[in-house]
Amino acid sequence: MIKEAIGIGETVEIAKENAYKELGVQDAEYEVIQMPEKKKFGLFGGSPAKVRAYIVITPAKAAQDYLRKVLDKMGLENVEFTAEEVESGLNIAILGDEFGYVIGKRGETLDALQYLTGLVANNIDEGYYRISINIGNYREKREKTLEVLGKRLAFKAIKTNKNVQLEPMNPYERRIIHTAVQKVKGAISWSEGEDLERHVVIGIDPNAKPYHKEKRYNKNFDKNKNGYNKSKYNKSNYNKPYNKYNNRNNNLNNTDGTQSREAIREVPTASLYGRIDKK
């Protein structure tokens, strides 16, 4: 986009300065349209000088000029920022981390500033020009926070088998949540609501297997491919309980049919259902 202005003056220099004032700049490209002519005999004819000054306005320049004006109105006349042009967009980094009020609650003020700056930049050309504004690495910190939040709530939805609704977010933050939920097997996410009430909902993937809490089991009952581990339960090291009591009853009887009065040795520290050894 080209912005131009015509300056008129008695001399070329004066006409150029007037054109610069019209553009609101101190320097620009210019061309002389008309040279000044003096009046004949000081009475007839003559014409002033005309200069056409122009500047080429790019989306990046328009965005930076607008951002500078807004920051000045916010009382940040001396704040510095850097601008890096990337593919189909511009990344602006405001230097310093003491501008919390520029970020606002959950980045709402910063998002609004970025949105308005983007509107100005996209008013220059027909194509889409993406504007990103960051302060003190706030965007990176916020992205990590949202990623952790999305995964944690996805696990919560799976465990409780209930949908979890998040607070309204902008499209950029909702996309971060969706990406984080995709990394959790068994959970899905979608967006509900309109405009400023648009928010993310996390629920159970209907195609996933139902969640069951892992059951703990006795290590002696490990299973292998063929069933229980037979090596732990072979006949050589496994005594059936009823054999002990059968043997004890046999010791109570003598060969002549009379009962033996010999006491059975007990373990003083044995529990109520502890093991009873024969003598």
**What number of domains?**
3
Strand/helix succession: EHEEHEEHHEHEHEEEEH
Task: Tell me the radius of gyration.
Answer: 42 Å
- How are strands sequenced across the largest beta sheet? 1-3-2
Tell me the name of the CATH class of the largest domain. Alpha Beta
Looking at CATH, which topology of the largest domain would you report? GMP Synthetase, Chain A, domain 3
Termini separation (Å)? 107 Å
Going by CATH, the architecture of the largest domain would be 2-Layer Sandwich
Mean pLDDT over all positions: 79
CATH superfamily of the largest domain: K homology (KH) domain
**Helicity range:** 25-40%
* Model regions low in confidence, pLDDT < 50 over at least 5 residues: 242-279
The portion of residues forming beta strands comes to: 15-25%
Shape: elongated
Q: How many DSSP E strands? A: 11
Biggest beta sheet attributes: 3 strands, antiparallel
- Structural class by secondary-structure content: alpha+beta
